[in-house]
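TL;DR need structure tokens for one chain.
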Amino acid sequence: MTDILLIGSNGQLGKELQHNLTSHNSNITAVARPTVDLAQPDTLHQIISTVQPQIIINAAAYTAVDKAETELELATAVNATASGILAQAAQKLGAFLIHVSTDYVFDGRQSHPYQETDPTNPLGVYGRSKLAGEQAIQENCNQHLILRTAWVYGTYGKSNFVKTMLRLGAEREEIRVVADQIGSPTWTGDIANAIVGLLPQLTPQVAGTYHYTNSGVASWYDFAVAIFEEAQQLGFPVKVQRVTPITTADYPTPAQRPAYSVLSCEKIAKALGTPRPHWRLALRQMLAELYARTYESSNSFRR
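>> reply
TL;DR here they are.
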């Protein structure tokens, strides 16, 4: 039986992982703030020393992309410094470290899917801090698996693009959404399934960097339209009548986003031996779960 330490168990991916790992033949220790705070290295040392895990899964991160532009020190502490500490601890224990990273390590100037070996060039503080975390892991831990993903949303967690659209769609008749940024929406349920599927294969030979997203490509506008179409079919309270495409220039943000961040996932597809679900199917499944959890379990809304 494998001893696994899951860090970030309260996040939208962490909760999915905790749920999925229960079916794996492992002893799971799931921790989150305040027990473990990536900005407080002492808490990391303490939990790793106590658990002595064979596998460490780091699903925690500083993900406030715009806020990071004014919180450089905190973003760096959580995404970069803590990753190095985890890598050193894993190396000392002989443990395997699985670390979740992001498409924001790329600048988005490419017009075909990014492979794991393509040059990185993050555009903002968030992407730079995540890339620094990747580099710290590569330099300090031989047995590591860095999993880059993109456009992540989930049933759990306080806020993500899907939940924001559902909230705005219940309040407004028109919503303006950026249409010139392209990527692959990815459900945390499928990311968690991929990570669990990799666990039996964790050997030094598979160490390295991988990409995982749902299959298919969309703009944020495409994604929003699909969210409302699926939500209406399920019975969510949606009043929006129009989704209007706009440009990135029409919606300025503190942090610059990559215009194209589709990730090539051929490497992980070979490792898993299973096809990746299309993003539209994943969205449908996520919304069905969210509807059941939000409405069917209470009397707050009737179809």
